[in-house]
Amino acid sequence: MTINCKGNLIDLSSPKVMGILNTTPDSFYSGSRKTSLLDLLKTAEEMLAQGATFLDIGGTSTRPGADEISEAEELDRVVPAIEAIFKNFPESLISIDTYRSKVAATALECGAALVNDISAGNLDTKMMQVIAEFQVPYIMMHMRGTPQTMKDLNEYTDLTQELIFYFSEKIRAARDLGINDIIVDPGFGFSKNIEQNFELLSNLKKFENLGVPILAGLSRKSSIYKTLDCTPEEALNGTTVLNTMAIANGANILRVHDVREAMETIKLMSQLTF
I need a surface site. Which of 59, 158, 222, 259 has the fewest CB within 10 A? Predict the structure, then answer.
């Protein structure tokens, strides 16, 4: 349960936190939108001080129905952000959240250390080749269709088993290309309805059979705020509850908007035995 980030071995047998930094004006949670470099750097500094191991930089919203932007616009958003963070915090481990191989390659050249791809290579067939070339960790998520179409693509016969089979094929393809460090993300909220998201969380431990680390991205998502009849801004307590369950069920990385609370969750959970 270790991954190699720029020569640093990160031990994921103890859960780690990935802080979310969006350089987008339309992400579903307003608190994650960082449209100025000053604001971005301030938040990055806070997240690192609070204990984040990774910072995940995204330049295009992937919420259901989000407008697709051009590759050039995505690059214009993420490259200055990555360069600024890398310059000011050179020891930080930056993840680029993109499904485009050119954006991933450019980000890695600018200082990023790993790639977080919502499509696991389905939206850009060159993505895995880029990962293999740069020899960086690859987070592969499950999603059907695109952010524009995924909402209606949630019919499954056996959700958990279908996702495990999906990832087993993706992992095999990645291994064949020489990709060593792989992390799977079940894709909470992506081509799954609320009931299915809770089913996945309940069955998360079954993904340990894949033999790779698991990332859980539950932070302030609709499964929380719609169930609780609140807003994303009011969904921190619910996020902490589900992050607790994710750790109990085997999650190795929590991808969150709120680093301090996630770190506290991990610290408290580390005192328990199961």
Answer: 158
